[in-house]
Amino acid sequence: MNDTDRAALTTYLNSIEDRSRSCIGYPTNTDFDFESIFPLFKHPLNNVGDPMVGSTYHLTSTSLELEVLAFFADLFGAKHGEWWGYITNGGSEGNLYGLYLTRELYPKAMVYYSEATHYSVQKNIHLLNMPSIVIRSQANGEIDYEDLDHMIRMHRHLPAIVLANIGTTMTEAIDDLSGIKDTLKKNAVTNHYIHCDGALAGSYAAFMEPRPAFDFSDGADSIAISGHKFLGSPMPCGIVLVKKRHRDRIARAVSYIGSMDTTISGSRNGHTPVFFMVYDKKAWP
Ligand SMILES: Cc1ncc(COP(=O)(O)O)c(C=O)c1O
Description:
The protein is of the alpha/beta class and 285 residues long. It has one domain: Aspartate Aminotransferase, domain 2 (3-Layer(aba) Sandwich). It has 8 helices and 9 strands. The strands form 2 sheets. It has a 7-stranded mixed sheet with strand order 1-7-6-5-4-2-3, sandwiched between helices. Strands 8-9 form a two-stranded antiparallel sheet. It is globular, with a radius of gyration of 20 Å. Pyridoxal-5'-phosphate binds at residues 90-92, 118, 120, 167-169, 197, 199-200, 226, 236, 238.
């Protein structure tokens, strides 16, 4: 690197240091210290493929990824041996994954989501070319169960995919899975799927009192959370957890990576699982 380049980088670094002193959130948590794992940035970590299958590439952090996934699967009431997941690039990818599974499961289904839903959901629905209906929100941002009931009744001949917000972007409103399930039952819709967008509040909802109905034990089929928002990390990341049988339907083997193609991107960030892990083991390494 020549002197001009070095000076340009120093100026950039100083400006970021300056700006982060007055940054209180986006939402992103800036209160973290990952200095202990800086040596890992000398290595091209890549968790290519399915974390539960492994691959022919060995500079991975999949063993840590699995530990992180197991922690959240347990926190989210997933049944032992019946869940699957991976560490994503953020909330939008987790939502894309949930919707992708639903489209493969129920190609003719209708997707229902409230008007307070994050823009990534509408974009993902567009990418997947799925029909959808926007449901009214209540004043607090929570889905309007009466409007949901009305719309589901009008399309009760179709499988229903409900996108529940576990913390809306603007008001942190949480859609109640028991209310959603009651509506599905009332309308005798037996083919249904509930994806929870927990990008905002999913990582702490389990610790709230009273605990909201938002996880697998409450009827979720998949849950996406964010790592860089509430927890905090130097780069965007998230987690998607799904019922394993849903993932099995889309899995296909790819011989040259020695793994199953079950994730949205092939190459995956191998450093982000370590950030989650550092939270778990305060003094690590
Ligand atoms: C409720 C909700 N869902 C999804 C997202 C998208 O997350 P990401 O920016 O990590 O892709 C956000 C981001 O603010 C959000 O607030």
